[in-house]
Amino acid sequence: MIIHGMNDSLHGVTPLPHLGVLRVEGEDAAKFLQGQLTQDFVLLGASEARLAAFCSAKGRMQASFVGFKHGPADILLVMSRDILPATLKRLSMFVLRAKAKLSDATAAFELHGLAGEACLQWMPALREPWAKADAGDASVVSLYPADGQARALRIAPAGTPAPQGASLTHAMWLWSEVRSGIATITAPIVDAFVPQMLNYESVGGVNFKKGCYPGQEVVARSQFRGTLKRRGYLAHSAEPLAAGAEVFHESDPGQPCGIVAQAAVAPGGGWDAIVSMQISAAQGGRLSAMRGDGPALTVQPPPYPLLADI
């Protein structure tokens, strides 16, 4: 059911200036990322992409990426531009003797979002999320849909003509990101969540069979011991929402029960958001943003099934 949807307008192409590209080059590129991120990059195929997170030793997400191979020894990680310099600096600390070079390659590429009819030319190759197709030097990665509309990310060398399609506003793209239910880590929420608090294990963002990475024990324990008490939900408010804002439940208006992970203006009015909150709080009762008597929130389940606790 679409409550605040405007999916009939979600068609077209838009530049994505809020995203950047972190590049990892060298014969150990995949092996290096394998030891740092939540997803498997050693087994990454040419027609695949990966949703992944970089966590602290305590399992808290420092950054999130959509990563894929740009060449046999060249991996591109698309991420929020506002935390790219800090992420690059921190990841570089772990390179040590690995034959891998990390760099900010944002200026070398152009990023576009494709939605609705603009994705049709890439079907059926991109029918599933995180599938990748190439056209010359450009790559297109299938994303999770928003209110039933297909979405994709196009990465091409700087100077490449923009993909064909109607013009889509950047605001509509940001809203579609929220409605997809998959949050991107940005500065206000660095270190706020373990991956499962944003449902990353349910949307291909965590591989529980791969080797060690920072925070792995915490992430695995959250999953396998059934200790997970927070999940990601969709939310709506008539008032402005922003990443990092706290969420409160009427049963305890002085103690936050969640955090807004990502928010955008809703084309139908108000603001839509991805909210990570206590499962118990999402089951009923008045919810508000920013303070106990703040703007009311209505909450929906995420737009995809969740993996049951093992």
Structure description:
The chain has 310 residues and is mostly beta strands. The protein has a domain of 174 residues: Gyrase A, domain 2. Strands 11-14-13-12-15-16 form a six-stranded antiparallel beta barrel. A five-stranded antiparallel β-sheet has the order 1-7-10-9-8. Strands 3-4-5-2-6 form a five-stranded antiparallel β-sheet. The chain is globular, with a radius of gyration of 19 Å.
Quick overview of this protein structure:
This protein is mainly beta. The protein has 4 helices and 16 strands. The protein has a domain of 174 residues: Probable tRNA modification gtpase trme, domain 1 (Gyrase A, domain 2, 2-Layer Sandwich), CATH 3.30.1360.120.
Task: Name its key features.
Gyrase A, domain 2; 34% strand; single chain; 11% helix; five-stranded antiparallel β-sheet; 310 residues
Report the CATH C-level class of one domain. Answer: Alpha Beta
Q: Which CATH architecture of one domain?
A: 2-Layer Sandwich
Might you state the CATH topology name of one domain?
Answer: Gyrase A, domain 2
Beta-strand segment tally: 16
- Average pLDDT for all residues: 93
Q: So, the CATH homologous superfamily of one domain?
A: Probable tRNA modification gtpase trme, domain 1
Order of helices and strands: EEHEEEHEEEEEHHEEEEEE
